[in-house]
Amino acid sequence: MLSLLAAGGAEAFSAFAPSLSAPKSLRLRQESVTMSSNDNPMSRRAAVVVTAGLLGSFLAPKESKAEGAFSLPALPYDYKSLEPYIDEETMKLHHDKHFNAYLTNLNKALEGKPAAKLTDIQKEAIKAGPAIRNNGGGYYNHALFFKEMGPAANSGKPSAALQKAIDASFGSMDKMKEEFNAAAAKRFGSGWAWLGVTPEGKLAITSTPNQDNPLMEGCEGQKMIPVLGLDVWEHAYYLKYQNRRPEYITNWWSVVNWEAVSNNYEKFAAKGIPVEVV
Amino acid sequence: MFRQGNKLSTSISRLSTLASRAAGVRAKSTLPSLPYDFGALEPVVNSEIMTLHHGKHHATYVNNLNAALEKMSDAMAKQDYATMIALQGAIQFNGGGHLNHSIFWQNLCPVKDVVAPSEANPELAKAIEGQWGSLDNFKTEFNTKTAAIQGSGWGWLGYNKQSKKLEIATCANQDPLVMKGLVPLLGIDVWEHAYYLQYKNARPEYLKQIWQVVNWKDVAARYEAAKKA
């Protein structure tokens, strides 16, 4: 690590922690420190080490795995807010038990490993083995899921840009939902259905097994940046819908928050960036 | 209400078999009756779960299997290999589901009818002890491996005809144990539908309790048959 820092200047710092997005004021301070030190390589190295240390202790970026690792994002609404489409008891179990278990197990699996962005973890998850694949995927997927939903009254509609993309790929919202619903119903066993942006920049639909998602290199189905996902594990719907998964799927659309989904699309996926969920 | 349902579903499946025979179409697979009432496995597995598990989930596998088999026989008649291959997934899912659940209902019995392996079949008890040291050790390993299944699947005690040994194995989704080259003796369903209404996310607790309704007589009968086959 020190030899990396000794390479000199701001480049060394960004090599050490590329994911840390230092606030602008701190970044300027770093540059002024390196510039004001005399051109002696030893004191330049010292300046970088000191600055990096200061910045490291300041920043606890939520995206990277820092000292405390990942944490459980609070539900953006009340457990009962998605009634009658998704029941309160399911929301409590789904968020506080299932989601939390993925988080706990992910942190355990990451112990002793270098800090990494959650979206980078997704990319390598299949190669990284079952613990990170299942729990890293589970943590990301559920973070996206709870954030993209909201009370039915606030469901709203897609932004103009998202609507345009839906129409371009599917013809209409209804046709998109038809294809999505079919993918969600057909997924055998546990898994997810996804709406996302392909590498060609178009919206498409796919599904993945268990806690895989399309960000993972080597995953089943169409490679894409998901903007909307539907959990079709039985725990997501069994208490209210039992075996009636198609009914759950149809009802779930009422609690999709189109503002959140449009944001996922415009700020991230349409730009080719995986959606940041924590 | 739930207790009467089993007799009703049996009658319905008998009627549909007769109807399809009358129509000149041979029914391919049928939903086997539960060997006991829906409430018979209480308090270990409640009657609501048994009603849905048998009457909806298993019934759906049977219906979907029959639909796939009908398409398969059309495709075979036309020598349409592409369609035959495309149907394999549906047959694996639904055929596997039908096989697995048919074994499962027999593998379980009311608490009052349960006997220990040593009473059911001393050979089987000896084989378990020989393999794992004790029945408890066997259950612990079985539960650990089965709880660890990601997503949906089954934990199995199987018989290896080559090595003539018992083995613990797990399968994903509805993959039948034959895919692992073992003869199924005892299967425990850990799809969430098998336990969620009663145990919620606590799969390990369900696995701890399920042993109270394992029908060792049935497991032993399968063991004997497997050894002879």
The computed structural class of chain B is mainly alpha
Main sheet properties of chain A: 3 strands, antiparallel
Strand content of chain B: 5-15%
List how many beta strands of chain A DSSP finds: 3
CATH topology of the largest domain in chain A: minor pseudopilin epsh fold
The CATH C-level class name of the largest domain in chain A: Alpha Beta
Please give the order of strands in the largest beta sheet of chain B.
2-1-3
Under CATH, the homologous superfamily of the largest domain in chain A reads: Iron/manganese superoxide dismutase, C-terminal domain
Helix and strand run of chain B: HHHHHHHEEEHHH
- Counting DSSP H or I runs of 4 or more residues, the number of helices of chain B is 10
Q: Per the principal axes of the C-alpha atoms, what is the gross shape of chain B?
A: globular
Oligomer designation: heterodimer
Secondary-structure element sequence of chain A? HHHHHHHHHEEEHHH
Number of helices of chain A: 12
Number of strands of chain B: 3
Strand content of chain A: 5-15%
Q: Give, in spatial order, the strands making up the sheet with the most strands of chain A.
A: 2-1-3
Shape annotation of chain A: globular
Domain Manganese/iron superoxide dismutase C-terminal (chain A): 158-263
Keywords (chain A): Metal-binding, Oxidoreductase
EC number (chain A): 1.15.1.1
Domain Manganese/iron superoxide dismutase N-terminal (chain A): 70-149
Structure overview:
The complex is a heterodimer of chains A (278) and B (229). Chain A has 278 residues and is mostly helical. Chain A folds into 2 domains: 2-59; 88-271, Iron/manganese superoxide dismutase, C-terminal domain (minor pseudopilin epsh fold), CATH 3.55.40. Chain A has 12 helices and 3 strands. Chain A has helices at 2-6, 9-16, 24-36, 41-58, 88-110, 118-128, 130-147, 160-170, 173-186, 238-241, 245-252, 258-268; strands spanning 191-197, 203-209, 225-231. Chain A has a 3-stranded antiparallel beta sheet. In chain A, a hairpin with a 5-residue loop joins strand 1 and strand 2 (203-209). In chain A, helix 2 (9-16) runs parallel beside helix 4 (41-58), helix 5 (88-110) packs antiparallel against helix 7 and helix 6 runs antiparallel to helix 7 (130-147). The longest helix of chain A is centred in the middle third of the chain and has 23 residues, at 88-110. Chain A is globular and about 45 Å long. The model of chain A is unreliable at 1-39 and 55-61 (pLDDT under 50). With 229 residues, chain B is mainly α. In chain B, strand 1 (153-160) and strand 2 form a beta hairpin. Chain A binds chain B through residues 93, 97-98, 101, 130, 134, 188-191, 209-211, 233-235, 238-239, 242-243, and chain B through 52, 56-57, 60, 89, 93, 150-153, 172-174, 191-193, 196-197, 200-201.
